[in-house]
Amino acid sequence: MLIDSHCHLDFPGLSENLPRMLAAMQENGVRGALCVGVNMEDFPRVLALAEQHPHLFASVGLHPEYEDVQEPDQETLCALAQHPKVVAIGETGLDYHWQKDQPEWQRQRFRTHIRAAIASGKPLIIHTRDAAGDTLSILAEEGARTVGGILHCFTESWDIAQQALDLGFYISISGIVTFKNALQVKEVACKVPLDRLLVETDAPYLAPVPYRGKTNQPAHVRFVADEIARLRGLRFDEVAEATTQNFFSLFPSVRKVLAP
């Protein structure tokens, strides 16, 4: 079986087609998915999905790109993380792609999330774009190794991947790995130790080949696993088994629900 380690089933394009998306997951052997929160205002929708469907799980956090929204403090994040279906803190991190002035408020928000993760004992879901150096530095400074987590939709170099692995984090590969020119992502997908690798869709974004340019969905995570297997010279079921067990290792409460 497979698990989609990062999707947004509450987003437009997926939420209105949820029964079809869930059926497609089952048909493609995708036994579970982590629905990732991106802001406080929409978190109730994310949590409701996890509450209503045993094979869906949630995270709580504020994405680094969001401005002029409710800013959660550490206590709020910790309180929300106590819900049994909330398995992680995030999506958090740094994104300097649009915020080219590299604002201090992003770094402070990131630190708040790391401290909440440590206090609540929940792993982190990390977003980093054009900010790998600062992301890794802050994770190290704040002691994030004690909880670990996922660098999601990984697009950085193998050197950055190694540093993240050294901090105790898992590397999650998205549909980008199926793109012809995504050579850096393909290299990382080949080199990450199999026991530290995860797969994801980031649905509704980044649909893999042969669906590139269309709305992504958790069922398509099988194409990510299939490409990784091809690149590494492994059987599909070896990648599926390894990435699922890795997800269970990071989120033990999920194992209790989904493990056969």
Fold and architecture overview:
The structure is a single chain. 41% of the residues lie in helices and 17% in strands. The chain is α/β, with parallel strands linked by helices and 260 residues long. The longest helix is centred in the middle third of the chain and has 17 residues, at 104-120. The termini are close together. The mean pLDDT is 97.
- Overall shape: it is globular
The overall pLDDT average reads: 97
Number of DSSP helical runs: 10
Largest sheet features: 8 strands, parallel
Kindly report the spatial arrangement of strands forming the biggest sheet.
Answer: 1-2-3-4-5-6-7-8
H and E order: EHEHEHEHEHEHEHEHHH
Give me the Rg, rounded. 17 Å
Ends: how far apart? 10 Å
Low-pLDDT residue intervals, each spanning 5 or more residues = none
The percentage helix is 40-55%
In terms of DSSP E residues, the strand content is: 15-25%
Structural class: alpha/beta
Number of strands: 8
Task: Give a short overview.
By secondary structure, this protein is an alpha/beta fold. Helix content is 41%, strand content 17%.
Name the features.
260 residues; alpha/beta
SSE layout:
Elements: E1 2-7, H1 18-27, E2 30-35, H2 43-52, E3 56-60, H3 74-80, E4 86-95, H4 104-120, E5 124-129, H5 132-141, E6 149-151, H6 158-166, E7 169-173, H7 183-191, E8 197-199, H8 221-232, H9 236-250, H10 252-258
Parallel strand pairs: 1-2, 2-3, 3-4, 4-5, 5-6, 6-7, 7-8
Helix pairs in contact: 3-4, 8-9, 9-10
